[in-house]
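pipeline/complex-builder :: batch 7 item 3
reading input block
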Amino acid sequence: MSATGRKKAPKAARVRIDDELASFAADPELAEMFVADGLDHLGTIEQTILKLEASPADLSLVNDLFRPFHTIKGNAGVLGIRSIETFSHKLETLLDLARSGAHAIGPLEIELVLKAVDVLQLMVRELPARAAGQAVTDVASRCEALVADVDVLIAGGAATATVLAAVPQRADESTDPVETGVTWFPEQSTVKVSTAKLDALVDMVGELVIAQAILAEDPGVLRAGEERVARQLAQVRRITTEIQRNAMSMRMVPIRQTFQKMVRLVRDLSKSFDKPTSVTVTGDDTELDRKLVEQLTDPLMHMVRNTLDHGIEPRDLRAAAGKPATAEIRLKAFHRGGGVVVEISDDGAGLDTDRIAARAIAQGLIADSTAMTALEIHELIFRAGFSTAERVTEFSGRGVGMDVVRRNIQALRGRIEIHSERGHGARFCLHLPLTLAIVDGLLLRVGTERFVIPTPSVRESLRPLPGDVHSTHGRPSVVQVRERLIPLLHLGDAFGIRCTSERISDGTVVIVEDSGRPVALVVDELLGKREVVIRSLGEMFRGVPGIAGGAILGDGRIGLILDTGGLLALAASSQAQIAV
Amino acid sequence: MATTAIVAETRSTASAGANGGGKYLTFMLGREEYGLPVLKVREIIKVMDITHVPHVAAHVLGVINLRGKVIPVIDLRRKFGFAAQDHTERTCIIVAEVALSQAAVMMGVVVDAVSEVVNVSAAEIDSAPDFGGQNQTDYILGLAKVKGGVKILLDLDRVLGSDGPIAIRPN
């Protein structure tokens, strides 16, 4: 059957389909149920068929495809919508053959099923308009055409060529429902909420969790010691935890879109670099805080560019190394230990330690690399101003690369790791928290003020012996911790607060690290570990050095959250003052 | 002189009713009485523990937790160059809405004592005096002669909003 032949479909059949849909739409309640159900199933079909396109040999996917079609057919049959029933049945027949192995699923079949999904979606979506007696898309002819195509495919043989020609032609047709403005059921039962409201909810729930924890540990409550109180508190805890989980999940989005951008970027870059590269994506349904996903895009793009530019070898080198002509980049996301790991790995050349060391020396970042381990040399790429590219390309080589990436990741309270093997490729792991709303921290006291330092940047805390604190220019400036001298930052002095401990050895030093550089914070007391909700101090306090935000503490007062990077800068400037 | 008057008039139209008249919350700073357009005032609270924020201008006392909201607190005495004074029973924080780089934010303003809400008619308002010098009286909406006294009507947006981010780099 040719494309022109299909167009001359019997008029009678077309009228029958329209009438059936109309009479069905006249019963809104039934229609609503059928439509919600049907759209759901069609969504599943669409997802499954796309998976099947990637792995056509997977017969279990065909089976997954068969079931929703069967359900739609069944429902339509019960409700007496013969048109949808016959149409679904036709596709079911094709899929039945496929799942028994009698018919192979190829690009044509996939295209056809997708088209059928479009038509079915149109049929159900336009039910409101049809019920209101308005003009709707002519689906009848498309149904007939598709049914004919299925027949051709089932028959197999030479006729398939005709179908092949006909498919793209139909792809131009609009599959959008005719705009009528008539709706009497929601497309999906979702509510649009502004992100600000959602953020406020998540913040307040965070406070609730903390308030609940404080209450549970309250001496008064513990003294009461009654089993009834304990039971009720446990119940409150269960409920708060559940609320928190729900509130958080509302703000979680899969990393899929970000990964998709990367896939596209690799495609474009591999063309412009002339390095054929394929991308494998795993775990793209891993969910992260919306804010994290947004702020992850730039660092990832940077790393993908670097991988293509520096990691993947040019064609000739790949051939010489006996590697497949098409390089591979793997994007991976997965949960690990209460956080999320995002990995970019490749089968390229890996980090060239000799070249990195040579460049770092040339750029004056280090004096000598002989005593450095491979890991330490890898670390060099995170130094500001480092660049291995001999020339500045459109994509990389400006030296504002990995240091910015690391800073961005750290701003998200995450860290970045490099695993690299010369000649076998590199793997960059980003370890990220699940959410930005809550931070684990150590509560510090300086005078009457309390501060929170995020745990990930804390190395250790100790009470130094008087002999371990050394002064320069009459002021204590370094502390010796084992064999290492670490610069001191007196938080009281830096923030203009009177400390209670007169000498450093009366207080505590907390050693924090940022970008591999340590600093020892001098504080009066360590008050313990706390989980706090990060609050912005607002527009007015933007750019206050050393302060990342505020947290409402157990007694209702605000404790400031310290920003390790900013503290290092403060330490550097205070040391510089001493040196003058 | 004439220019100043016009500027002051335009400003008052923008901030407090069509002619500068309206309700004002009055408060004391030293011996002077000031007024804020009542529509800008959210609430009046007792002085609570204020968390000091380092490296900010001296008149910024820090932040407080107002029922789960973190809001900055300003010392109006210091802002206007009065001598510092210990907080008393009557010391209050007026929580008001201030336009800060386009967005309205809540801010706390520490004052010596809150007096009352007065109705001021446009006829009772004089434009801010010009003491010479530049922009000195920028933030004064006008002077209100009410009940035998003079109240200084403030445009809080100009008192505080003009500051922008108030972080100062350590020297």
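note: The interface with chain B takes residues 203-204, 207, 449, 494-497, 535-547, 550, 552, 556-560, 570, 573-574 of chain A (CB under 8 Å).
queue -> next item
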